[in-house]
Each structure stands twice: as structure tokens, then as C-alpha cells.
């Protein structure tokens, strides 16, 4: 399977967000901006797409009592670029990111596209000192699996956004590649929703404090004494998260 380049991927994501807003009958104006067209390649010259400016402006518009929660579910060039362009916002943001293996894992993180495609930006998130909630994808977010019968019963026909999500589930090229046979018996991972699940109810995503690891050049974790602390997820309450999702999909028709 061929993957598109970062510029096309960003544009496709932008257009998909427009579709989601339309399905939810939400106003678009001033709420959707384009991100970087490439990955971070230099700490000295980060890109400045509208998304970076938006993060900086939003972070500076709050105060210490109400930090900006920056939630990332993909590559993090936009987030890293904002921190590089305006390092003072490190005290005004909380970063929430899902990717890769737990920081205690001995494995190479190369299987994680979020991290592997954007290593310099990924490394910065663990080094910058901003409050970070790291939610591992493998073995934690990966518990958020959903089946075709569940999509048919609780998502399809419930609302416009439900139908859109059902279409994306059934017409996903990766799903067709790996779960096309016996799809009524297989499940598909929807792990990105772990970030929003934690924001809605931290009890749904149990976490613990640990020292931020160093992401090495070969994409392994390395640990050193004296590193700053971060919060890391180690489990999910899968059923509560999906029951909340089903309820919200149905409510979206009101």
C-alpha cells in the first residue's frame, strides 16, 4: 500500500475535518487551519503554517490556571514548531499525545508511524519540559477495538456523523487489506480516541508519573536520572469509552 506525502496527507486531513464539521452541523469559521506540509527537519528553522500560529496564540490567550491542552493524534511537527517558535509557552500548555510503545518497553519504536515519520519533533516533546501526558499506542491504546457488528448496531443510522464514521470504517483501505475476510468476527483498532477519552474522564485512562525518557537516534527509549517527570497511560476502560462514544453519536442527531 502506498502512503501519500506529508503535504497531501495534511490537505486530506484538513478536508476530512471539514466533512466532520459539516456532519455535526458545526460552524467552521476560525476553527480549522492547515498545518505543516512537511516534517520537522531543523530545530533552528521550524515551519510556520497557520496551525503553529494558532497554537501559539491560543496558548498565550490563557493563564496559568487554565493551560491550553494540545491534543495530538498524529505526527507532531506543528506542536514542536510552536514550542520552538515561542518557547515561553512551555508553561502555558499541556501536551497530550498517543504514539509508540510504553516508555518502559525495550522495543524499537519504528512500528509507530506517528513517531517514526517525525523523529525530531517526537524527540522534542520528551525533551522540552512542557507537561506531557504520553499515551502509548501499542498495548494501551490498542485495546480500543471495535467490530463491524458494533458499528452496524450502535453507530450506523444514529446520526449524520454516525453514518460518516460507519462509512470510514467499512471503506478503510487498511481494513480492506487486513480484515476483509470475516469482518463480522474481526475487530479494528480506533486507538486515537484515547486522547479525548482521557480529557473527558481521566478514570477511563489510568496513568502514572514517570521520568520522561530520551528518544534515541535509532528510536529506542533511554533513561537517565534527573530527567523531568511526565504522566503516562498504562490501561484503558474500553467499554466505558465506547459506550460514551455511542451515546454521543446518537445525541448528535438532536
Describe the model:
The chain is α/β, with parallel strands linked by helices. It is 39% helix and 15% strand. The chain contains ten helices and nine strands. The chain has helices spanning 6-23, 50-61, 77-85, 113-116, 119-127, 148-154, 160-170, 173-179, 194-200, 238-251; strands at 68-72, 93-99, 132-136, 145-147, 187-189, 207-211, 214-215, 221-222, 229-233. A five-stranded mixed β-sheet has the order 1-2-3-9-6, sandwiched between helices. The chain has a two-stranded antiparallel ribbon with strand order 4-5. The chain has a two-stranded antiparallel sheet with strand order 7-8. A hairpin with a 5-residue loop joins strand 7 (214-215) and strand 8 (221-222). Helix 3 (77-85) packs across helix 5. The longest helix has 18 residues, at 6-23. It is globular, with a radius of gyration of 18 Å. The termini are far apart. The mean pLDDT is 93.
- The H-and-E topology, N to C, reads as HHEHEHHEEHHHEHEEEEH
Helix and strand content put the structural class at: alpha/beta
**Outline:** globular
Helix content: 25-40%
- Kindly report the spatial arrangement of strands forming the biggest sheet: 1-2-3-9-6
Strand content: 5-15%
The largest sheet, given as strand count, sense and whether it forms a barrel, is: 5 strands, mixed
- Counted by DSSP, the helix tally is 10
Amino acid at each position: 500500500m502506498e502512503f501519500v506525502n506529508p503535504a497531501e496527507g495534511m490537505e486530506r486531513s484538513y478536508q476530512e475535518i471539514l466533512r466532520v464539521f459539516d456532519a455535526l452541523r458545526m460552524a467552521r469559521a476560525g476553527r480549522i487551519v492547515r498545518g505543516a506540509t512537511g516534517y520537522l527537519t531543523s530545530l533552528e528553522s521550524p515551519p510556520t503554517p497557520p496551525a503553529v500560529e494558532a497554537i501559539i496564540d491560543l496558548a498565550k490567550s490563557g493563564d496559568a490556571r487554565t493551560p491550553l491542552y494540545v491534543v495530538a493524534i498524529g505526527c507532531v511537527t506543528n506542536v514542536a514548531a510552536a514550542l520552538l517558535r515561542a518557547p515561553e509557552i512551555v508553561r502555558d500548555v499541556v501536551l497530550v499525545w498517543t504514539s509508540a510503545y510504553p516508555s518502559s518497553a525495550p522495543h524499537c519504536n519504528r512500528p509507530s508511524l506517528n513517531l517514526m515519520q517525525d523523529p525530531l519533533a517526537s524527540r522534542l516533546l520528551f525533551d522540552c519540559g512542557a507537561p506531557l501526558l504520553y499515551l502509548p499506542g501499542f498495548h494501551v491504546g490498542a485495546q480500543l477495538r471495535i467490530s463491524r457488528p458494533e458499528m452496524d448496531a450502535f453507530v450506523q443510522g444514529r446520526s449524520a456523523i454516525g453514518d460518516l464514521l460507519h462509512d470510514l470504517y467499512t471503506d478503510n483501505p487498511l481494513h480492506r487489506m487486513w480484515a476483509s475476510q470475516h469482518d463480522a468476527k474481526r475487530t479494528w483498532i480506533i486507538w486515537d480516541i484515547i486522547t479525548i477519552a482521557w480529557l473527558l474522564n481521566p478514570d477511563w485512562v489510568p496513568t502514572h508519573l514517570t521520568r520522561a525518557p530520551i528518544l534515541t537516534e535509532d528510536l529506542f527509549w533511554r533513561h537517565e536520572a534527573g530527567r523531568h517527570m511526565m504522566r503516562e497511560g498504562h490501561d484503558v476502560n474500553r467499554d466505558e469509552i465506547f459506550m460514551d462514544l455511542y451515546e454521543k453519536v446518537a445525541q448528535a442527531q438532536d
